[in-house]
User: Which sequence fits this backbone?
């Protein structure tokens, strides 16, 4: 038992067992709990960015409602399962229509990653939801509500999971650090909280990866390790790149940026994200800042559309050089 827990990824090892272990989503947890207590749980839709506790919350809720044997009362369908219309219909039908051994009211059907279901499948669901409302409740989980059909949306009570506040991540992380006997320097902790951007899964994964880099487990994890594990450029490197783009001729700037990128294995998009962070602390004229951000956004969009790396890299240098000319 102990051994298998050792091998688990931390995101599983530290998955919330109860609703009280779900951090930073107090309002949602309280509301949902109240629904259950009053015996009027609606169909639920949890949506929001990754790693904010959607799956964890619904599983913890199921545990709270049904106790240890909650699995008998819950049907979980994931994106990786075959979710053609017929499969969904049959599985749900079978599950919903089997007699309940314990009469605990309704059964729960969790449709995880529902935004990756086809429209046809989503449309088929609306009839299914209606048909089985008597003894089942659906909980639909998704990253984007706009990818769900309106008919589906209107049948559920919506809860938006916000990116977790840094304080919530810090609380959880501090807990894990103690349990794992891992030490982080204060700068490393700060970097971890900033770079996780409200995603607890990312925070825990980076922590686990940074522990693996230590030769001696009693060593402290440094800020640099955190940046490396997350694959983000260190602000100092961004400063170096920006300075070169501003002061050096085009060729030297191109060389400098590329050297930083290849030595750290960074994608151009990571550099742009880093630049935007660093530029936040620069004192700039409003028009410089506006132009800079708009143009960097254009480059970011072009990269996401598959734009040529060398051309986009050059564009970044162009953006920096021309925008800062406005500064005079
Ligand atoms: N609010 C939270 N409180 C405590 N731990 C959390 C929270 N959110 C996420 N985690 C941790 O991150 C891991 C992933 O969380 P979870 O699977 O619930 O995210 P999700 O919101 O369903 O993400 P996705 O949209 O990618 O499915 C969990 O195992 C848990 O360890
Ligand atoms: Mg999930």
Assistant:
């Amino acid at each position: 038992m102990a051994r298998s827990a050792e091998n688990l990824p931390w995101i599983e090892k530290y998955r919330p067992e109860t609703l009280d272990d779900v951090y930073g989503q107090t309002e949602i947890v309280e509301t949902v709990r109240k629904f259950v207590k009053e015996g009027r749980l609606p169909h639920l839709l949890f949506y929001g960015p990754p790693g904010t506790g959607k799956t964890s919350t619904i599983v913890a809720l199921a545990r709270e409602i049904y106790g240890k044997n909650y699995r008998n009362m819950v049907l979980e369908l994931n994106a990786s399962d075959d979710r053609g219309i017929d499969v969904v219909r049959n599985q749900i039908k079978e599950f919903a229509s089997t007699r309940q051994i314990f009469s605990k009211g309704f059964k729960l059907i969790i449709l995880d990653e529902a935004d990756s279901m086809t429209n046809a499948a989503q449309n088929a669901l609306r009839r299914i939801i209606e048909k089985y409302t008597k003894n089942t409740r659906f909980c639909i989980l998704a990253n984007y509500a706009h990818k769900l059909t309106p008919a589906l949306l209107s049948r559920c009570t919506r809860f938006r999971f916000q990116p977790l506040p840094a304080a919530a991540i810090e609380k959880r992380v501090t807990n894990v650090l103690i349990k794992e006997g891992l030490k982080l320097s204060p700068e490393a902790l700060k970097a971890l909280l900033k770079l996780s951007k409200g995603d607890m899964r990312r925070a825990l994964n980076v922590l686990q990866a940074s522990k693996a880099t230590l030769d001696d487990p009693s060593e402290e994890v440094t800020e640099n390790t955190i940046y490396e594990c997350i694959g983000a450029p260190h602000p100092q490197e961004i400063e170096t790149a920006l300075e070169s783009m501003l002061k050096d001729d085009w060729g030297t700037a191109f060389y400098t940026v590329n050297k930083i990128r290849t030595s750290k294995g960074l994608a151009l998009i990571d550099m742009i994200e880093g630049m935007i962070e660093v530029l936040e602390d620069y004192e700039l004229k409003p028009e410089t800042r506006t132009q800079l951000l708009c143009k960097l956004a254009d480059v970011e969009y072009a990269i996401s559309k598959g734009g040529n790396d060398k051309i986009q890299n050059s564009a970044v240098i162009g953006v920096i050089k021309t925008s800062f000319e406005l500064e005079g």
